[in-house]
Specification:
The chain has 355 residues and is of the alpha/beta class. 37% of the residues lie in helices and 22% in strands.
């Protein structure tokens, strides 16, 4: 679909979007009739860029949660629902723990500061994702995460060691598990051949009350099946919280904006992508054609940034557009037509196109 056609649709979509805001709730539809089944709410928490969203996407077999190679891709609490053995598993994807300083540096939403705590209040079980490929933080859990775990009382928690495929030494892996669990798993003490290590130092690194430990690669999917089985075993009989037809509590519009934002984080260096604003200007789902059509404008702070993003002959922008379309097709399981344009702050799109 040509850019000119997409532009002509924007004014119509603005009216539709306004009507939706007036008459439709953004909350996911609850089951009209109460259906009894097994349900488990699982909060996934951890340090930034540990692989929380990637893990959920792999379990869901659908790219619902925005993920990139930079920190703070996830900026708000989002739910993803799947079904396994007649059990509704509700994942609560949370932003990585963030300080006031980081929130200001990356211009992140203030709501991020309390998103993890909010997810814990909704959870029946808590999963802590930890990146073992990072040699600087491999052997200690983030202190903010430990504080959260200490605050949840009797809610079961489990440890997920991610990116284990990048850790070649089995001895190092066992030492890492011992450090992160303080040598205790499900109330049982792990054997420790190295008696010279200080017990006091271990207590400062890990958490002693994990009910289980899983070794996974969220990128390849190795080990994620065992997590599903664990969650099913922790489910309780109750009324289903969401309609069986839904797989997220996010609107299609929000999912598209977050997917675009994640791709800019992947492709752009340093802190540049954190200064961009993403806005969906047109969206339509053509049921008969199994197709999603959308148009997204990305606002840049200056002409220089817009030229950097576009690249020579617009090549970089086209590459971002191609990867975004692939992720959206994986998300919606439909053909996706997307128009992606840059806009400089306080200038119209026409001003840029006519340069």
């Amino acid at each position: 679909m040509s850019t000119s056609i997409m532009l002509s649709m924007r004014s119509t979509y603005s009216c539709i979007k306004y009507i939706r805001c007036l008459y439709f709730s953004t909350q996911i539809e609850q089951p009209a009739n109460k259906v009894t089944g097994k349900v488990v709410n699982v909060a996934i928490i951890g340090a930034p860029n540990s692989g929380k969203s990637t893990l959920i996407n792999k379990i869901m077999e659908r790219k619902i949660c925005a993920a990139s190679n930079k920190v703070h891709t996830t900026t708000k609490l989002a739910r993803a629902m799947c079904y396994e053995k007649d059990t509704q598993i509700i994942f609560l994807d949370t932003p990585g723990v963030v300080s006031d300083k980081e929130q200001k540096k990356y211009k992140l939403p203030v709501a991020m500061l309390g998103a993890c705590e909010k997810s814990l209040r909704c959870a029946n079980v808590v999963g802590v994702v930890h990146d073992v490929s990072n040699k600087w933080s491999r052997d200690s859990i983030h202190q903010d995460v430990i504080s959260m775990l200490n605050s949840i009382g009797k809610i079961p928690s489990f440890l997920i060691l991610n990116k284990v495929d990048q850790l070649k030494s089995k001895k190092q892996l066992l030492a890492t598990i011992r450090n992160l669990t303080n040598g205790v798993i499900a109330g049982r003490t792990m054997p420790n051949p190295d008696r010279t290590q200080s017990t006091k130092s271990k207590l400062q690194k890990g958490y002693s009350h994990f009910s289980d430990v899983f070794l996974v690669s969220a990128l390849t999917g190795d080990g994620v099946g065992a997590i599903k089985e664990y969650l099913v075993s922790n489910a309780k009989v109750m009324n289903l919280q969401y309609s069986p037809d839904y797989w997220t509590d996010q609107t299609p519009e929000a999912l598209i904006e977050e997917t675009v934002r994640a791709k800019f984080l992947d492709f752009l260096p340093q802190e540049i992508p954190y200064n961009l604003k993403t806005c969906l200007e047109y969206y339509d789902e053509l049921e008969d054609e199994e197709k999603v059509v959308c148009s997204v404008v990305v606002e840049c702070p200056s002409d220089r940034i817009a030229r950097l993003i576009s690249g020579a002959g617009g090549g970089r922008l086209q590459q971002i557009k191609s990867y975004t379309r692939n992720d959206l097709m994986d998300l919606f399981k439909k053909t996706v037509v997307i128009d992606l344009q840059l806009k400089v702050k306080n200038k119209s799109i026409d001003d840029i196109q006519n340069k």
